[in-house]
Amino acid sequence: MSGWADYVKNMMDNADAIKQGAIIGKTDGSLWGKLPDNFAITTDECTALSKAFTDLNGVPATGVTVAGTKYIVPRVDENLIFGKAGTKGVFATSTNQTIIVALFEGQSSEAAQARTAIESTADYLKQSNY
Fold first, then answer.
1. Inter-residue contact 26 to 53 (CB < 8 Å)
2. Which residue spans within the chain are E strands per DSSP?
3. 92 to each of 21, 62, 108, how far by Cα in Å?
4. In degrees, to the nearest 5, what angle opens at C-alpha 64 toward C-alphas 16 and 99?
5. In the chain, where are the structural domains located?
6. How far is it, in rounded angstroms, from Cα 32 to Cα 30?
7. What is the pLDDT confidence band of residue 1, given thresholds at 50, 70 and 90?
8. Region 73-82: what's the mean pLDDT?
9. Residue 81: phi, psi to the nearest 5?
10. Angle, to 10 degrees, between the axis of helix 4-13 and the axis of helix 108-127?
């Protein structure tokens, strides 16, 4: 493991609730790194996430699909998408050049842990001009 997957690993190490994660290109949705290797995020899903960040206000109406699971999006914040599907959830946030995706399992405390980890990763990448 090297490169972008290291950032995903660090994010996952900081939140036990995060089970899968990825970093994709913000402008084109290209996959830069993911963990674990069998994380089934598709090219189409990456592209859709990239497009979602061009119109965040429209995301709650459509939701997001990641690794074949459709997530209801009850809210978006500045540069952050939060989705739920039962006891599973997704956070996606953007930096200047990337979109970071984290799939987590659990309820409120796990969601808070996952959000903190993904936002910390985003802050680091922003400080590194990504």
1. yes
2. 18-25, 31-35, 64-66, 69-77, 80-85, 88-94, 98-105
3. 10, 15, 17
4. 65
5. 4-127
6. 6
7. very low
8. 94
9. -110, 130
10. 140
Q: Do residues 80 and 91 touch, judged by C-beta distance below 8 A?
A: yes
Percent of the chain whose pLDDT exceeds 70: 98
pLDDT above 90 for 32: yes
Which residues have CB under 8 Å from 86's CB, separation 6+?
none
Task: Report cis status (omega within 30 of 0) of the bond before 74.
Answer: no
For 101, the token pair is: 């995706």
Instruction: Look up the pTM and report it.
Output: 0.95
Listed in sequence order, the residues at least 6 apart from 34 whose beta carbon sits closer than 8 Å to its beta carbon are 5, 8, 20, 21, 22, 23, 41
Q: What pLDDT band is residue 2 in, cutting at 50, 70 and 90?
A: low
Considering the segment(s) 4-127 as one domain, its CATH architecture is 2-Layer Sandwich (3.30)
Please write the tens of the pLDDT for every residue from 50-66: 999 999 999 999 999 99
**Dmax over Cα atoms in the chain, in whole Å?**
37
Q: Residue 75, Cα to own-chain centre: how many angstroms?
A: 14
Angle (CA) 13-125-31 rounded to 5° is 80
Residue type, 112: A
